[in-house]
């Protein structure tokens, strides 16, 4: 059985689960430092007690009493120190937690702002791409329609040209027929003979008769 | 050229008429030489006797129709033939007719004798005394005429002029169309 019972270390509330790793690490370092200090004090007191017990056999009881008194005193001091350290640590931790909370809120706000900006950029970019796509699609559609229209116009123009050619040929045939009918009726024998003499003179001029 | 043919050609313009008159002249000469057998008879009496001796038919009709022309040949024309040479002369004439300048005229109207004479004189004056022509009726020519000579055809008709101006006519119609649209 140990000479004195070790007092259990007070439970320190653990940092919130959402705290960052570096914050948890810092708080654990602080706790570890306090425990280590307390253990050192206890170990030193125990060593001194053993030493005193071994040095004096006769006056052991007195010494033991002194020892116990000293030990109690040392324990009390240690406990006091420990509690003070703990209080300070707790206060520091609370302050740190508050600060951390503030920082977290700021970070969250910044992240939210960043996300918002990013989303806005994405939306803007998307809108621009959509507009470009729509413009290109519209342009392509317009070009396709223009080509189709041109093809249709060409086809109509070809058809029209062919029809006009047929009409022209028919008109000329009708005109020739009309000439024939009208002139045959209208030309007198004298006119006909004049035309024949004109033709003969022309043939003579062309040396048709040799 | 044979002298007989030259005389006949003087007032003869178409090939048909020439062939007919040569044949007629031969018939009259044969009648005078072989039937009348009197070289002192005048041509007029000879023709009267021929008409009297000939039954109604193509020969009589031809003689009556060409009596004036036959008389225009004169009494001496028939006195140049004798029995031994008449066939030789007319055979020679037939051969010479084949090589005469014969021009075919395609006309879109019916032509009268007086106009034939007028045309014939034009040919005699402008082409040559030996020139003869033939008519063919071609109503589709509308006006003017078409000529055929030595296998070459030249068309001077209104129909051809219209056809030559066909493209110009179409162009004018197109201009009208464009102008009105």
List the helices and strands and how they pair.
The complex is a heterodimer of chains A (210) and B (181).
Chain A: H1 21-55, H2 60-186, H3 189-205
Chain B: H1 3-10, H2 15-36, H3 43-53, H4 58-65, H5 67-73, H6 75-79, H7 86-98, E1 102-107, H8 113-126, E2 132-137, E3 146-149, E4 152-155, H9 158-164, H10 166-180
Parallel strand pairs in B: 1-2
Antiparallel strand pairs in B: 1-3, 3-4
Structural summary, described in words:
The complex is a heterodimer of chains A (210) and B (181). Chain A is mainly alpha-helical and 210 residues long. Chain A is 85% helix and 0% strand. In chain A, α1 (21-55) packs antiparallel against α2 (60-186). Residues 1-5 of chain A have low confidence and may be disordered. Chain B is 61% helix and 11% strand. Chain B has helices at residues 3-10, 15-36, 43-53, 58-65, 67-73, 75-79, 86-98, 113-126, 158-164, 166-180; strands at residues 102-107, 132-137, 146-149, 152-155. Chain B has a 4-stranded mixed beta sheet. At the A-B interface, α2 and α3 of A face β1, α8, α9 and α10 of B.
